[in-house]
Design a protein that fits this description.
This protein has helices at residues 6-16, 18-37, 42-79, 81-84, 94-134, 136-146, 152-178, 191-201, 203-209, 226-242, 283-288, 296-307; strands at 187-190, 211-215, 221-224, 247-253, 258-263, 310-316, 320-326. The protein is of the alpha+beta class. α6 packs antiparallel against α7, α7 packs across α12 and α10 (226-242) packs antiparallel against α12. The chain is elongated and about 120 Å long.
Length: 335
């Protein structure tokens, strides 16, 4: 519930007591008319009306003080309603008491459902985390086997195995980002070292797809979490190579610490641009590529938000896309 201004509270209070005020005013008018018909002095009638108005103001003022106190107590309860729904203020009427019983019943049902959901979610997270770690063993064995002989078939299988590894890493990142336990560690990091890790990981993919990489190293440090910034850059490089049939991918960093990943690929349709960071959205090119998951850019945005990084994109169909990461270290740290 949004906290109301003082004048809004006054209007709410007057609105709740408007019937009583009108009734009181009607009775005062009736007495005034009766006194007038009996030829009482106008001064006596005036004094009586003034006294009635003053008494009304005192009563309404005292009532408003109690009204404001109850409003403050309700605000405190609402700020922690999941724990305080059993400690509602004492009901003044039977109707209020019935409503409070309904609220308490709904609160207990909600806690039961929340407990069950948390238990199921934790079991699901434990299962997928275990699966993601266990699947790495057969992947490593397959990689060692395929690297034993350099053939065209083995190179194709290694490329597909690399994609499997990417999907596994994406699953782990999805689980970690959705967890309440944060593993973010903010420190001054060498930006070149992070970028080089990502480039090294995708070097074989660049060669296989015949895409050139343009990158001029910069001597720059940024305040961030190395592992999660690396994850974002890897996802951007993966998309850049994936949707660039020929040409180049360019990584650059401006003096203002804005990192950009630009490609000369297919570009993004204008109608897709506002939604590319949505969960599960694949866009026109994603629908053409049946293997697209629509999770890569979604995870980039989620990670960037947690790192306090602003991510944006500029694209033109047929000419390519450029993704921007604002790494300026004077930004406020996320809570």
């Amino acid at each position: 519930m949004e906290k109301l201004k003082w004048y809004q509270l006054v209007l709410k209070y007057l609105h709740e007591h408007v019937k009583m005020a009108l009734t009181f005013a009607l009775f005062t008018a009736i007495y005034a008319v009766v006194f007038f018909l009996y030829d009482l002095e106008a001064e006596a009638i005036f004094y009586a009306v003034v006294l009635c108005v003053l008494v009304s103001i005192v009563i309404l003022g005292a009532g408003f003080i109690g009204f404001y106190g109850e409003y403050r107590r309700r605000l405190l309860i609402l700020n922690d309603i999941q724990l305080e729904f059993e400690n509602l203020p004492e009901a003044d009427t039977l109707l209020e008491e019935d409503y409070q019983q309904m609220v308490r019943a709904l609160g207990r049902i909600n806690i039961e459902h929340l407990t069950d959901w948390q238990k199921e979610r934790q079991e699901s997270l434990d299962y997928y985390t275990t699966w993601a770690h266990q699947i790495k063993t057969p992947i490593a064995v397959m990689r060692m086997t395929l690297q034993g002989e350099d053939t065209e078939e083995h190179r194709e299988l290694l490329a597909e195995l690399f994609r499997i590894e990417q999907y596994v890493e994406m699953v782990l990142s999805y689980i970690r980002l959705g967890s309440h336990q944060s593993d973010f560690v903010f420190q001054e990091c060498d930006l070149d070292a992070i970028i080089k890790q990502a480039v090294h990981k995708y070097a074989a993919m660049f060669v296989r797809c015949r895409v050139s990489l343009v990158y001029e190293p910069v001597e720059m440090t940024v305040l961030t979490d190395e592992k999660w910034l690396l994850f974002i850059i890897e996802q951007l490089l993966s998309n850049a190579v994936k949707y660039t049939r020929e040409g180049t991918v360019t990584i650059s960093v401006s003096p203002e610490q804005v990192l950009s990943v630009a490609d000369t690929g297919m570009g993004i349709a204008p109608e897709d641009l506002p939604r590319i960071f949505e969960k599960g959205f694949t866009g026109y090119h994603g629908r053409a590529d049946k293997k697209a998951t629509g999770l890569g850019l979604y995870l980039c945005r989620q990670t960037a938000d947690k790192l306090g990084i602003r991510i944006s994109v500029r694209s033109e169909v047929g000419k390519g896309s450029t993704f921007f990461l604002d790494l300026h270290k004077e930004r406020p740290m996320p809570e």
